[in-house]
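Troubleshooting log. The previous structure file for this entry was overwritten by mistake, so regenerating from the original sequence record. Sequence copied from the archived sheet and checked twice against the printout by T.R.
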Amino acid sequence: MPLENNYAFGNLQNYKLYLRPNAHTHYGYPFTKKSSLNKHQQNVQNLLKLMSKNESKTTWDLAKITISNDISKLREREKIYRRLLVGRKDKGKHSNGILDLGLVVKDGKSLKTGISDKYRLSLYGILYCIDVLDLNSNEIDKIAEKYSHILPKVFGKWNYLKSKIGNKVYGIKFLANGLLADNPQIQVQTGIPFYELMSYVHIKYQKNFEHISEEKLADQISYWFYVNLLYYPTQKTDSKPMGIKLLDPVFDTDKELKKWFSLFFKESAQYYHERYTILKKSTSN
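Regenerated output below.
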């Protein structure tokens, strides 16, 4: 379902340099004890964790999950959730909501009792939850289940991927931590085009630093996820296969996924071929 607002998502570089640090400043850093957070930060983190376990919901539906019988408390909780999401602009006070930073997006309407906005985590809201909320594997599995349609090439394949690569699926934590793996000093086994492909993941979307559609952002995250599977610390080994064939166990039984990644690989190879051609011509004059 297309989003009703034109949210200004940026690419993964934007996440690393801007959105993630801002989210930390406003709502809390990784490895921070709950007791050291202020009340607002605790409330935001609690709401984000609740949303990570559920698909798109209204603030009323979210409140009902935690309070079921007391209508007055339910209304008060709904009011708190609404203020956290959209901010506050009453009684001479103004504060931004989670929506303003981009961790949450509006996602359609509910017509059950009047017309109400529905909300869900954005892709960056998902990464923030994984980054900061100290989620265990089961909780990340739950996010993958509820948000499979938002990140279809990864979360939509989650159980399949777990059957192929086991706990390596949780490598998405590295991305959530802001590690884009685009450092040329990263060492991998000889013959594995890890740096070249990971660099191209970012080159492909470099024009989208300030604005990228959620669908393209999902693709960039997905390319990062699969290229990251190629990473192995440098060590002497006689194991085969090498290079991109290390991904064969993931792709060989999913033709659609293999075709999607193969197109990306060919595109990156073409890019580097063109760059090499330019360099070669520059020395022939």
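The radius of gyration is 21 Å. Archived copy saved in two places this time.
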